[in-house]
Write a structure and sequence with these properties.
This protein is 27% helix and 30% strand.
Length: 198
Amino acid sequence: MKKGISLVELILAIALLAVIVVAATGIDVAARYFFKSSDSKTRVINDASFILEHMHKYVSRAHGHASNFGYVVADPNTLRIRLDASVSGFTAGFTPADFTDDIWVQYRFSPSANRMEFCSNWDPATGSCSGGTGVEILSQRVISHVDPGRRVFTLSPDLTSVLVDIEARYDPAQSADVRDNPEANLRTAIFFGSHSFN
């Protein structure tokens, strides 16, 4: 007598295979979703970190003294920093007492455009970028703080550092969502260099 597979055994095998396929598909979908949300969060944090690293490079080179600071928080969204032009590679020789040959750089958060801008040659006389350098956009993921009392730039009480508070979202035009549109808030104090408080 020939032994074969019965209809019941065939149905059980197909049902078992279907359970395995559904479980594997569920794991794959969950893994892809987790990867996407992790990738989005990482991009937001990287954007905000890049801004802070960029600022640190210039803030730590601020040049001035007690009666003529090398930095100005013009408003809660604007930070200006004076650099000794010789240190910046524009002239020969270090001229700490001569501020006339120095350059100013500016960081500005534009709430309407959700971006952090950098001007490498800000002109105090005209109040704008000059020298053909234009404005560099560091990130287009920076958002306005929900709390209006919070500021992007604040000088520390002892005037030795600037406190930077950046809030960024993967898609600033959409509301925050932990999984689909994550946001990150980075706060730090960056200390000024080359200042005499005598």
